[in-house]
Amino acid sequence: MDWGKRNRLNNVLAADGRCFFLPIDHGYFQGPTRCLEKPGETIAPLLPYSEALFVTRGVLRACVPAGTTVPIILRVSGCTSMVGPGLEDENLTTSIEEIIRLNAQAVGVSVFIGSQSENQTLGNLTTLVNECEDYGIPVMAVTAVGKELEKRDARYLGLCCRICAELGASVVKTYWCEDFDKVTGGCPVPVVIAGGPSCHTELEVMEFVYDGMQKGAIGVNLGRNVWQNPYPVAMVRALRSIIHDNAKPNEALDMFEELKNSGEGK
Q1: What SS3 class is residue 101?
Q2: Is 179 left (phi over 0), alpha (psi -120 to 50) or beta?
Q3: Among the ranges given (62-66, 85-89, 161-165, 213-217), the one the predictor scored with the smallest mean pLDDT
Q4: Staple 138 to which of 99, 106, 123, 236, CB 3.0 to 4.6 Å?
């Protein structure tokens, strides 16, 4: 791997090789999602606890201070919406020149394996890998499932992750599932855990993050389960204790409650 690409990957990881990525790209297909109506205000207290910010170019320009030192992972696929017939028919939205101009440390693109747009979205991934490789920019493949959440099992996600790695992704973002070690064990590049829809309790989030970390993930790319929580700072700090300090779910929950009750959780 070229020095520049290694350097960019290291920039989006902590010294221990693990990561908490903060995604706020949801608006590219959901519009003004709850708690993300004003992205700049949402992320302000969370940036100090994030290894990288996953964001579209529009929100990056409009809402993220140019003085931030938090590395940027740029969302570069889109062109569908929640009110359309499906989320799968994505295209690449951002040129390699724009990626470089915005000083992105990495880029992210969704693939929809098993859908009618499988070939197109995998083609998006390979096009992006080919273009970014010339400039040493890592590509994160996002194994999206659209509205078909029942697809999230180890056999399907393991297939998706392996294909993304085979096509040149440097990192793969995928959902947690039962037998998650089967997913990470068959993927030769690092795997980060996606958040998915909001969970019912904080402990539920902590349990799947802990299990995923124990079974081979290097970190998470978690948004709604953090910034839609009434105490987002407490949540991100508790999750970081699992990722970076190997805290168990109940220990992380104790930290969350302590920060919440102390007034430091918001």
Answers
A1: helix
A2: left
A3: 85-89
A4: 106
91-92 and 171-175: which strand pairing?
Answer: unpaired
pTM over 0.85: yes
Q: What single-letter DSSP state applies at residue 85? A: S
As annotated, the active-site residues are 173
Measured in whole angstroms, the distance separating CA 103 from the mean position of its chain's CA atoms is 18
pLDDT digits (tens, 9 = 90+) for 134-168: 999 999 999 988 656 666 899 999 999 999 999 99
CB atoms within 10 A of CB 40: 12
Q: Using the 8-state DSSP alphabet, how is residue 140 labeled?
A: E
Q: Residue 204 corresponds to which amino acid?
A: E
Phi and psi at residue 186, to the nearest 5°: -100, 5
Asked if residue 72 lies in contact with residue 102, where contact means CB atoms within 8 angstroms, the answer is yes
261: left (phi over 0), alpha (psi -120 to 50) or beta: alpha
Domains of the chain by range and CATH? Answer: 3-228 (3.20.20.70)
127: which 2 tokens?
Answer: 């096009």
